[in-house]
Prior knowledge:
Distance between the termini: 37 Å
Mean pLDDT: 76
Shape: globular
Amino acid sequence: EALDRLDEAMEVYGRVFDENCTYKVVPYKGIERMLETLKKQGIRLAVLSNKPDRQVGHVIKEIFGEGLFDWIQGQKEGVPRKPDPSAALDIADRLGAEIAETAYIGDSEVDLATGLHKLKILPAAPDQNYPLPSSDPHIRSGINHLHFHCCCQIS
């Protein structure tokens, strides 16, 4: 019976979270301008999150509007969760991006672990103690494709 109650609780939680998933969500300072600048430069942008896919799409559209991101993906059944890099690599492939020209930006240890799998990693919030690969010539000279994760913070 406890497992039945857990399933019921998870269903209720999911409904409440779906209805309130943008509560107190705001973009990091300066992120909108940065993303708009990258988009104007022709850089393709994507979002990858471990949050449920339906919620991620809603949050991104609510916060950033339509058209800024070329791909938005949350957790989907049958797709390994980060830090497994499969979803990030799949998104890069779908967008026709070469991994050597793709930056994966995140703001958590899970993102760092994801980025260490064949991807370049940059933290979304530089005050985090994650290493910046600033000596990498691909990053210094500009990146043709940028995949961005965790562009919002909860305040």
